[in-house]
Design a protein that fits this description.
alpha+beta; four-stranded antiparallel β-sheet; two-stranded antiparallel sheet; 5 helices
């Protein structure tokens, strides 16, 4: 009898542990799904802001506004603030001073900063670092202090990356710095060099002009193909649909 009772208790214990484990995994998955959905929403806001900026000014914002010597002074993330529910902050920002001047630094904690931070990063509510960047450099959509228009994308707006996700960012959301086409790695989640990367298990996302939200790239994408997607006139034969995860959960266009 004692042995039978022990076996019953043991069996119930194993069952309980299994149920608890499944519950923990379900909660973890639900939280990650919520974070990923929120991240997709940020991509949608950014893409819409870029579209509205282009509608008003006739072009996309430059990657940065330069000073008289050509040095980066202000970021595109600041330029689109009026289209990111940040009109008041934009009015307070001083473009005749560097982005990190004493005055402008006082604005770094204002509301819009959270829209530049991925919900999957550590301390998303307090972080001042951005997880959303452009690829800046020659023949990209953001060639530095110069502006482009989506009609200039000879490869097509469906094959040209506008915004990319990065993990463990050290780029302040107001800082005029992004991924550099000339120095970045074109390997996803490269642990050794700045690259398109993500804290999400499903991998990093990028944003194209023709799709509202972010598209999570398949881990098998090659550096050559990814590099091709960052240029606007490379004329590379890239079939985008083969490069995205089937479970990207795209929002409606």
């Amino acid at each position: 009898m004692r042995q039978k009772r022990w076996l019953i208790i043991f069996g119930l214990t194993i069952l309980f542990i299994g149920l608890v484990g499944k519950f923990v995994l379900a909660v973890r998955d639900a939280r990650e799904a919520a974070r990923q959905t929120a991240c997709q929403g940020h991509f949608c806001q950014l893409n819409l802001a870029l579209s509205n900026y282009q509608e008003v000014y006739g072009s996309l914002p430059p990657a940065y506004v330069a000073d008289a010597d050509g040095n980066p002074m202000h970021s595109w993330r600041v330029l689109i603030l009026p289209f990111m529910d940040g009109k008041d902050l934009y009015k307070k920002y001083r473009f005749d001073e560097p982005w990190n001047s004493p005055h402008n630094s006082q604005l770094q904690y204002d509301h819009p900063r959270r829209q530049y931070c991925c919900p999957g990063c550590s301390n998303p509510g307090q972080s001042l670092f951005t997880n959303y960047v452009v690829i800046a450099g020659p023949d990209t959509a953001f060639p530095g202090s110069q502006s482009t228009r989506t009609m200039d994308f000879e490869d097509g707006d469906a094959n040209t990356i506008l915004i990319a996700e990065i993990n463990n960012s050290d780029i302040h959301w107001m800082e005029p710095r992004d991924l550099s086409f000339e120095t970045m790695s074109f390997q996803l989640n490269d642990p050794n060099r700045p690259s398109i990367s993500s804290p999400h298990p499903k991998g990093p996302a990028v944003c194209f002009h023709d799709v509202c939200s972010g598209i999570r790239l398949h881990s098998s994408i090659t550096p050559i193909t990814l590099r091709a997607l960052t240029t606007i006139s490379g004329h590379e034969p890239v079939a985008r649909d083969r490069l995205i995860r089937k479970d990207s959960h795209l929002l409606e266009e």
